[in-house]
Every structure is written in C-alpha cells, then in structure tokens.
Design goal:
Layout (H helix, E strand, L loop, with lengths): L7 H13 L26 H8 L7 E4 L5 H17 L4 E5 L20 H10 L2 H4 L2 E6 L9 E6 L4
Length: 159
C-alpha cells in the first residue's frame, strides 16, 4: 500500500491546526488535598448492603437489649459490648433501646423521670470518637428487628 503525498496547502493547514491545539490535561484539584481520618472515611456500606439493611433482609450477628438499664450502666455496657463485637469480627449488630413511654399519662409514676432517655442518648454515644472509629453506619432497624425501638449498627472491618 503506497502513502498518499500531501499537498503544500494540506501541510500548512495541518501545521496551523497542530499549533492551535492544546494538550488535554486533567483539572488540578483546588486547595490542599483532604486527608481522610479513620472515623470519617468511607462507610464500608455499599448500596446493595444498604438496601438489604433497609428491607430487613440481613440478620444481625449479635444483639444487646438495654431495656431496664440506667443511663450510666447502659453507656458502659454498650461501649464494652460494641468493642467486643468489633474484636470478634461482627459486622451487623442490633442495639435495642426501646421506644420510651408511649402513653401520655402525666400523672403516672413512670412520668416522674424522663422517658425514652436511652432512645435519645444511644445515637449520641455512637457518635463519640471512641465508638465512631469502630462504626461504619447506624440506622433504625426494620420492623422485624424492633423498628423504631432498635438500631442497626454496621461495624467497620477489624484491622
């Protein structure tokens, strides 16, 4: 196969186009690079797993029921239990807090103290730095696992 001979006009057009062209470069990120800490890094929960959690198709590997505990004993128990679950390599655990007092009776003896304290406090405890490093995701449990009175805690892989 023989090569085609370019005319002077074609050569000039090529050279002009070649000089005007700019190389393609990736856009440089603006600002300093962001460092990912272990606690704020990727969650480790992909879309398929997230969907299965939402639909209640994954069975928790362990569960803790905080019903009847005082706030301080529940706090200590939760910290120790989650650290042990993480060390054993569990990924999905269930923390049952209860829904609190569903009745609206202001004169009842159980209304003398705050109700639903654990339901309010457990999510706060899970965001504390000591536990946040172990946790990939927290979300309300499916109805078959306790619904609004329980939380799925998806733990990070043990390293």
């Amino acid at each position: 196969m023989s090569r085609r001979i370019l005319s002077d006009e074609e050569r000039k057009l090529f050279e002009q186009t070649f000089k005007e062209g700019r190389p393609i470069r990736a856009a440089a990120p603006k600002g300093p690079p962001k460092k990912k800490s272990r606690a704020t890094g990727p969650t480790g929960v992909n879309g398929a797993t997230q969907d299965r959690l939402r639909r209640g198709l994954l069975e928790p590997e362990a569960r803790i029921d905080l019903h009847g505990m005082t706030q301080s004993s529940a706090h200590r128990s939760l910290f120790a239990w989650l650290a042990a679950a993480h060390a054993r390599g569990f990924r999905l655990v269930l923390v049952v807090t209860g829904k609190g007092n569903p009745k609206n009776d202001e004169n009842a003896p159980w209304m003398m103290s705050p109700h639903g304290v654990l339901k309010q406090m457990v999510p706060r405890w899970l965001n504390e730095p000591e536990l946040a490093a172990l946790i990939a995701s927290v979300q309300p449990a499916h109805a078959r696992h306790g619904g609004g009175g329980a939380l799925y805690v998806y733990l990070r892989k043990a390293r």
